[in-house]
TrEMBL record:
Source species: Streptomyces corchorusii (Streptomyces chibaensis)
Stored Pfam families: LOR
Family: Belongs to the LOR family.
Gene3D superfamilies on file: LURP1-related (2.40.160.200)
Protein's recorded name: LURP-one-related family protein
Length: 164
């Protein structure tokens, strides 16, 4: 499954639709303005909140939290010892860890679990300006979670002002 994400999605207070590869609206990212911390909601086409994304307050390193139905789902932060490429760790509440690495600011990176590819984030396939694709490789993967991970990682990388 491939999803098209507008690159300006990370503006607080902005709302953006995520479309499938056929141009159908699938998810709405609702950027919440007037909050003390960066907050986004990923909603379905009916307006139901599927995932809440927000920045953890009072953390030593920038950390984003993902919640589903008010319950913690994942914590995302930059790996400490990643010298060559941008590297982020996604810690799920069940103890599972996902690895995100690549050229985050260029929108060319991958999400893996235990060495197995779950999703590829890339601009290469697209001719649409200011858009990148989230290609969910595994059939049993949670597309909403993987899109939320991509949004969080890009947001953290842009806040840190990192260059690859």
């Amino acid at each position: 499954m491939r999803f098209l994400v507008r690159d300006r999605i990370l503006g607080i207070g902005d709302d953006w639709w995520i479309e499938d590869e056929h141009g159908r609206k699938v998810f709405l990212v609702d950027g919440k303005a007037m909050r003390l911390r960066d907050t986004f909601e990923l909603k379905d086409t009916e307006g139901r909140v599927l995932i809440d994304i927000h920045q953890k307050m009072f953390a030593l390193r920038d950390t984003m939290l993902i919640e589903r139905e008010g319950e913690p789902l994942a914590r995302i932060r930059r790996k400490r010892l990643s010298l060559l490429r941008n590297h982020y760790r996604v810690s799920l509440v069940d103890g599972t860890e996902l690895d995100v690495s690549g050229k985050i600011l260029d929108r060319e990176f991958a999400v893996e679990y235990d060495g197995e590819l779950l999703a590829v984030i890339s601009r290469r396939w697209l001719s649409v300006r200011d858009t990148y694709g989230v290609d969910v490789v595994r059939e049993d993967a949670d597309p909403a979670l993987l899109i939320a991970v991509a949004v969080c990682v890009i947001h953290l990388a842009e806040k840190e002002g990192q260059e690859d």
